[in-house]
Structures are given as structure tokens and as C-alpha cells.
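Re: that chain you flagged

S.,

Sorry for the slow reply, it's been a week of failed gels. I finally had a moment to sit down with the sequence you sent. For the record, here it is as I used it:
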Amino acid sequence: MIWLEAFGHARITSTLLTMVLFAALCAGIWLRERRRLRAERHLAASLLPSEDASPPILIVHASQTGTAEQLAWQTARALQLAGVSARVSSLAGIARDTLQRVERALFIVSTYGEGDPPDAAAPFVRNTMLSRAGGSLQGLHFGVLALGDSTYAQYCGFGRTLDRWLNEQGAKPLFERIDADRAADSAIQNWRQQLAHIAGTRDAPDWSGPAFERWELSARTRLNPGSDGEMACHLELRPAAGAALPQWEAGDLLQVRVPGEEQPREYSIASLPADGSVQLLVRQSMRADGTPGSASGWLLATAAIGETLDARLREHRGFRLGDNATRALILIGNGTGIAGLRALIKAREAQPAPPGSDA
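Prediction finished late last night. Pasting the C-alpha cells below so you have them in one place:
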């Protein structure tokens, strides 16, 4: 009986602990969304209305890693410089009646995995796209920039689905959907040209990302020798020709463009600037025909130590610590997906202990 009673208390304690952790997770998500909305309002305040007081163009983003959101704000600023007012919103904050009230909307959406919508798009898909309630969208004119990765079978799957759904609802396309394979420069240039047509100018302002720079592969260590899984390696890269190491934050990404492959690959950075190098955790990817992926194949097997490649840093604001620097964290990673988590943990360890703590 004593053993059963102790067992019962242990189960109650475990259940309560689980509930507390779940509540903390929900609170963390809520706080992150609140901060994101606050940041959006701050950025929106910098978008001045057009002089002719025409209705603003609605620019909607659905992002998984931050690229779509970044392009949305760049799009808004480009239109503003051309004299066209714009309003930016996450797809999570859009409902059918919102689309029924606007004349023009531009959608910049990514695809997660094999054709799935990004997390931010889930409420819109559930409450609007899958709902039969509400009227048509015949008064809406729209454009879609679909971000994706052509190595997946359902390339730009969510962007294609959204484009088809908008047409089915009676909305009229301003131009044909633009599919961007890993944010290809040619696709972004096409998008900018369409913005120029919308703004009635010869060209929209250039807002391309920072230039790629030369980086040297300085070290490579296999992490899983003897494993039945594909090879995974720890890589270290440093600016070539002795250039200074740039600054980044935990959660940021490195875009790598290997020789012979125009489109860059994005990798979570597993280190901090204090470590003296950009460190990556990369697993060998294999195509359906058994040949290695272009980027991982070059990085893990073809490239010699000391060889150089083109790369550039990219901010990933949605994955940075931000206001969570002193809060309890629940980090979930899968396989080499722990790279970004490794940097976050290192950043937390580098934080000074708060006053009165035992850390």
C-alpha cells in the first residue's frame, strides 16, 4: 500500500510537471507572437501613405525560416519608394473578409517539406481555405511569389495551392505565379519587374541581399563513423584571404553556393563569432537515383580542406533568442537540425547569470 501510494504521488507530480511545462511552452509561443506583431507594427509605421491616398496594396507573407517575411518588407519598401502605399501582414492574421475589402494583394509564401504550408499559414488554411463559408473574392487582384526547393517532389506546393485557391474564389491574377527555387535571383528579379509594372515605373529599386564572399573550408570532422545512416560532418569555415570574421547571432543562417551550383543552400550556424569560425553540422543527402546532393556532396566529400566557396550570412530573426535570453527554453531538434540549437545553447551559456540566481 505504501508503495502504491508513493507511486500515485509520483504520477500526480509527473502530471503536474508536464502541465507546467506545457503551459510554459504555450506562454513562450504567445510571447514570441506578441513580439513579432509589435515588430511588425513598428516596421509598418515607417511605411508612409501614398500622396494620392489610393488604397494600400496588401502584402502577405507566410514564412518558415524568415525569407518570405524579409521579401515582404523589401517589397513594401520598394513600392513605397515608387509612391505606392502598402500594408504588410502575416498570413496568420488574414481572413476572408480581409481579402474581400482590399483591391490588390501580393502573397509571398514558402512551402514546408513536401508541399505543406509553413506553420504561420496553418490558421488561414484551416479557417479560410478549408471553410465553405463566406462570399467570393471577385474584387481582388493578386500576385503570388512561391518560395520552394526543386529537390522536393512537391516543389512550391503551398504557393501553387494558394494560387489555385485564389483563382477558384474568383480573384484575378495580376500576373502569372512566380516560382522561386531557393529564392533564385532570376525569380526575384522577375518579381521586382512585376512590382515596377504595378507602381507604373520603369524599374523598382534594387533590394537584393548582400553580396556573396569567399570563404575557406578550414576543417571537416565526421561525427558518425560506422553509422548505418548517411555521413554527418562538423564543418568549419573562415573568411578567405585573412578577411575579418563578420558578426552574427545564434539562430542565424549561412547561405552556401558551391562551385557549379547557382542556387545557394541554407544551413543553420552551430557556432558564435567568439568561436572564431562559422561551424555547420551537415548530413549527406542522397537523390532518388542514389547520387549525392550537390551541396552536401561537395562539402562532405569533394572539397579539399583549404578550398574556397561563395557564402553569405543571413539573419533569421524568428529563431534568435531576443527577449528569451533569460527565460527557460524547450529546444527540439532532429538529426543535424540540432545545429541551430547548439548555437542557442552556447549563447545562453555566455549570458551572465541573473542577479540572485544559483547559476
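What I noticed first: The first strand starts at residue 57 and ends at 62.

Talk soon,
D.
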